[in-house]
From TrEMBL, chains A, B:
<dbReference type="Pfam" id="PF00107">
    <property type="entry name" value="ADH_zinc_N"/>
</dbReference>
<dbReference type="InterPro" id="IPR020843">
    <property type="entry name" value="ER"/>
</dbReference>
<feature type="domain" description="Enoyl reductase (ER)">
    <location>
        <begin position="16"/>
        <end position="341"/>
    </location>
</feature>
<dbReference type="InterPro" id="IPR041694">
    <property type="entry name" value="ADH_N_2"/>
</dbReference>
<dbReference type="InterPro" id="IPR013149">
    <property type="entry name" value="ADH-like_C"/>
</dbReference>
<keyword id="KW-0560">Oxidoreductase</keyword>
<dbReference type="InterPro" id="IPR036291">
    <property type="entry name" value="NAD(P)-bd_dom_sf"/>
</dbReference>
<dbReference type="Pfam" id="PF16884">
    <property type="entry name" value="ADH_N_2"/>
</dbReference>
<protein>
    <submittedName>
        <fullName>Alcohol dehydrogenase superfamily, zinc-type</fullName>
    </submittedName>
</protein>
<dbReference type="InterPro" id="IPR011032">
    <property type="entry name" value="GroES-like_sf"/>
</dbReference>
<dbReference type="GO" id="GO:0016628">
    <property type="term" value="F:oxidoreductase activity, acting on the CH-CH group of donors, NAD or NADP as acceptor"/>
</dbReference>
<dbReference type="InterPro" id="IPR045010">
    <property type="entry name" value="MDR_fam"/>
</dbReference>
């Protein structure tokens, strides 16, 4: 059987903030059966992840493209790979059979063809919705877990600041930090998000950074005793203000710098005097380096989800054609929680 | 017996680059004997250390002043404490007696009175000149040793870049790194210094940063395979260029940022995109946190000095009145190696 696969591509490289006009919905016929000798797997995509870092892959040049296997440049006109969850339609690989639910590197489209060696794993939903396996139980969750526990190495009672705290990773960092026994303040870009962080997710406090006249004094008000850990999802001035308010032996986990993604000139220039005298560590990381922690992370997080101690925060658009607007929304601060697109019903 | 103690003070706070007119030579009578009940120690200073970080203590305000016990603000008109080596003239403290050679927190002057609890230790010169105990065998050495081994955690064969490589700490970092089996390139501010690093100290290569048109491409030329470790003594653009040329899992030890000391606006703004994708760690440190490594450092370094594997690099001025010009020379790049002032013959 042959169907028409619809997928999203970029028309040309995207070097600034992304716009609808940068994307196109393309179609190509795809056979839903395999030649007898094939060892590929055909997956019908169900949920695909929408992540800010993809913008770095869309640029005509970014040093990131050569430094991570997950950040290789995207070719205009071609399918864009992404983490996602789907169902096996046909398999030439003995590890998979038709009907298996899988998670792996699929594409921003309706179907994906996974070649041997491609990232693909059978998925046991563990009784949770499949969407959890794209967000809270997948890379967003692992990023928060590894970044907080492995990079920040928290101690109970420490003061934690999280930027983009209602984002896919930030909301989980805050929840893990609260469960661990830290004092947690988040910032976000609207009063609704701020209320949500405080009332639903149990943050000790939160503020709308767009209403802050001066970030340094704002942070001083929220952290009269200083910041021990800053989980940085935004970079820029917020990082500078956090370093300014940091305590001795403070740690900055640099997870994302969305302010730099679309404007390379907009850099953080934290005081290196503070870095020295306060013995601050600023460390970048990628979740992909912590796959050895995945089992710990997964078991712990499943337990917290069952008890209700962690609340998954999802922002789901529907249909392959909504991928561009879903992606663009990330750069406009319009998402609340993990952004993903539901491509099809199981 | 009473003598006139001559010492150096600042006239007012110093908020830019230091000038001769910022300092004054003061005098005050000092008794070289103690009252019977006194538990103080009077030290005749022999060598005093001249360090760039003192500028941060001279400012009217610097956040550094509240974050380290060694960085408390200096009061205009009063004696300025510093590390140094001297000889006990009189002691009310049973741990010391007249004639003891000691190292500790003395002052930029001819005599120091050390109160109980003040930093003071008996010194065994181990057959080395006393000046070694102000530089290579004291805090400059410990800073290089702890910064390189504890913060950078080097592996054999790694590529190491050191800025201000002919400075008190930089020259030792390069020498330790070479002995450890790393590839080492240093930068300095004159052709003479560059030649010295290559010919006398065994650096694999070195360059004059003042002749570099573009720091990023210069570093790319010296490190075609990238930088694994950057030992940062200067901050600013050099740090940005080093991060740009850094390999995955690169480490930046931030030891000093002399470019920021006299101009707070002159900040380093390394690409946080690089920090993330290359998983770079930027870490500030103070040698005072590594006193538990002092015995290791001291024994190892004494051995290297005896075999000639480490060459001490000293820049010694003479006489208390030369302290201001010695200090100012640090900010003009005029020193080669550890700057100190010899106050008196033993």
């Amino acid at each position: 059987m042959e169907v028409i696969n619809r997928y999203i591509a970029i028309k040309t490289h995207v070097d600034g903030a992304p716009e609808e006009s940068d994307f196109e919905l393309k179609t190509s016929p795809i056979a839903l059966s395999l030649a007898p000798a094939s060892n590929e797997v055909i997956v019908k995509n169900l949920y695909v992840s929408i992540d800010p870092y993809q913008i770095n892959r869309m640029k005509s040049y970014s040093s990131s493209q050569k430094n991570s296997e997950f950040a290789v440049g995207i070719v205009p006109g071609e399918a864009i790979d992404t983490y996602g969850v789907g169902k096996v339609v046909a398999s030439g690989n003995p590890e998979f059979e038709k009907g298996d639910i899988v998670g792996g590197l699929v594409s921003w489209g309706e179907y994906s063809v996974i070649k041997p060696g491609g990232m693909l794993n059978k998925l046991n939903p563990m009784g949770f919705p499949l969407s959890y396996h794209v967000g809270v139980l997948a890379f967003s969750g692992l990023t928060a877990y590894a970044g907080f526990f492995e990079i920040c190495k928290p101690k109970k009672g420490e003061k934690v600041f999280v930027s983009a705290a209602s984002g896919s990773v930030g909301n989980l960092v805050g929840q893990y930090a609260k469960l661990f026994g830290c004092y947690v303040v988040g910032c976000a870009g609207s009063q609704d998000k701020v209320a949500f962080l405080k009332e639903k997710l149990g943050f000790d406090d939160a503020f709308n950074y767009k209403e802050a006249k001066d970030l340094k004094s704002t942070l001083k008000r929220y952290f009269p005793d200083g910041i021990d850990i800053y989980f940085d999802n935004v970079g820029g001035e917020m990082q500078e203000a956090a370093v300014d308010n940091m305590n001795i032996n403070g740690r900055v986990a640099v997870c994302g710098v969305i302010s730099e993604y679309t404007d390379d000139e907009k850099r953080a220039a934290p005081s290196m005097m503070d870095v020295i005298y306060k013995r601050i560590k600023i460390q970048g990381f990628l979740a992909g380096d912590y796959l050895n922690k995945f089992a710990d992370f997964f078991t712990t997080t499943c337990d917290h989800l069952r008890t209700g101690d962690i609340k998954p925060l999802e922002d789901i658009s529907e249909g392959v054609e909504s991928i561009p607007s879903a992606f663009i929304s990330l750069f406009r601060g319009q998402n609340v929680g993990k952004k993903m697109v539901k491509i099809a019903e199981e």
